[in-house]
Amino acid sequence: MALSPSKAQLVKEVETLRRELAELRSRAVVRHGPAKGLQAVEPQLAGIIQSAMDAIITINDKQRVVQFNAAAETMFGCSARDAMGHSIDRFLPDRFRTVHHQHVKRFGKAQATDRRMGALGAVSGLRANGEEFPIEASISQFKKGEQRFFTVILRDITERKGLESQLRQAERLAELGTLAAGMAHEIGTPMNVILGRAEYLMRKASDESTRKGLITIVAQVERITKIMNQLLSFARQKPIERRPLAVSLVVHDIVDVIQERLEKRGIQLEVDLEPNCPKVLADRDQMGQVLLNLIVNAIQAMPGGGFLSLRLRCRNDHVHLSVSDTGCGIPPEHLPKLFTPFFSTKEVGEGTGLGLTVVHGIIEEHQGSITVESEPGQGTTFHIGLPVHQAGTSS
Fold first, then answer.
1. pLDDT of 315-339, one tens digit each?
2. For 281, phi and psi rounded to 5 degrees?
3. 154 DSSP 8-state letter
4. How far apart are CA 56 and CA 24, in angstroms?
C-alpha cells in the first residue's frame, strides 16, 4: 500500500534523522574511542532530539516512557518530568491502546533495525486535558545492550485534517451550485406556470373548499421558489451590484413587506434608526434578503407573539444593524454551527438549513461581519456590521 505524501515525508525525515545520528556516533567513536565517543556525542544527540519539530517519544519494552522531547511536551500538554516512567497509554485514547500494544509486539518480533520502520499510520493522540487530536506516527526500534527500545515519531495533523474537510465541503458546495443552476432552469418555468394557473383559478373559484385547495397550491409553489432562490444565492450564481446604499431604506422596504404578518402573529415591532447614518457599498436586493431572512427566523421563533426590534447605528466607520426577538432562543451548543450549510434547528420540512448560510455569505462578500447572541427562553439578537462607504472607492 502506497504511503500518503505527508506520511512518506515523515518517514523520510525520520530516516534522515537516524542516519545523521548514526554518522555522528561513528565520527565520535573514531575520534574518542567507543566509551568516550558515546559520552562525547550524547549532548549533541540530545540537542538534535530536543530541537526536532516532530514529537519524539522513546519507550522501553514495558511501554514506559524513557524519552520525551520538547515537541512532545507541547503536543500533549505534559512536561517530560511528568511523562517519564509512565505508560505510553496515557497519551492514547482507550480504543487505540490495544492496537498500539499489538503493533509494538509484532514490530519487536520482526527484529527490525534502526533503518527499518513500521508505520502506525493516522491515529489519535490524547492531550493532558483529555482532548483527542489526529496524529500521524511512525515507529522504529533499537537495542542498547540487552534492552530493546522503541522510538515513536509523531506529527499533529489537526490542521491538515481541517483543510481536507474544508476542501471536501468546497467540492460539495461547487457541485451544489451546478445542480442549483440546472434545477432553477428546469423547475422555475413549470413552477411559474403552475403558480399563474392556480392564482387565475383562485380568482375564478366561488367554492370555498376549492379556494382553500388553490391557496395551499400557491403557498407550496412559493415555498419551492423560495428554496430555489436560496440555493441560487448560496451558490452565488447572481452577480452582485454594489452601489452606495442607505441601510435605512432596506429596513423600510422589508418592514412594509412583513408588517401585516407581524400583526397577525401578535408581534410588536420597534424600529429605531439613527438619523443621517452614512451609506454602505452594497447590493440592495441582497441586503433585503439578509434582513428578511433574519426577520422570518425571528417570527418563527415567536409562535405565540412577542417583541421584534430593529436598530441601526453608526460607530467607528461601520454601520451596525441589529435584529432582536424575544423568542425561544438558541441552545449554546448550536451557536457555533448556526451558519453551517444544511444545519437547522427547525422541524423537518420547515427549513432548508441554508437561510443563515446565505446571510453569512452575503455579509462576508460585503466585507462585513455578523454575530449572534442568544439565551434559551429569552430571545436572540443578530448583529451585522458593514463598512461605511468612502467616496471615491469602488468594489
1. 889 999 999 999 988 888 888 877 7
2. -90, 105
3. E
4. 18
Q: What are the helix (H) ranges across 33-157?
A: 34-51, 70-76, 80-83, 94-109
Using a cut of 0.85, tell me whether the model's pTM lies above it. Answer: no
Q: What angle do CA 162, 120, 7 make, to 5 degrees?
A: 55
The residue type of 8 is A
Counted residue by residue, the chain has a size of: 395
Q: Which long-range contacts (CB under 8 A, 24 or more apart) does 127-131 make?
A: 127/75, 127/76, 127/77, 127/78, 128/76, 128/77, 128/78, 129/77
C-alpha cell at 74: 507541547
Q: What is the pLDDT of residues 94-129, one digit of tens each?
A: 777 777 677 666 666 655 433 333 344 457 888 989
* Bridge partner residues of 381 (DSSP): 324, 373
The answer for residues whose C-beta is within 8 angstroms of residue 54's C-beta and 6 or more apart is 10, 13, 14, 71, 153, 154, 155
Q: What angle do CA 88, 89, 95 make, to 5 degrees?
A: 140
Q: Are 150 and 58 in contact (CB under 8 A)?
A: yes
Write the DSSP assignment of 253-292 as a string of letters. HHHHHHHHHHHHTTEEEEEEE-TTPPPEEE-HHHHHHHHH
CB-based burial, 84-102: b 16+ in 10 Å, e otherwise: eeeebeebbeeebbeebee
8 alpha-carbon distance from chain centroid: 28
- Judge whether 307 and 326 are in contact, CB under 8 Å: yes
Query: 329 — phi, psi (to 5°)?
Result: 80, 175
Contact 96, 124 (CB under 8 A): yes
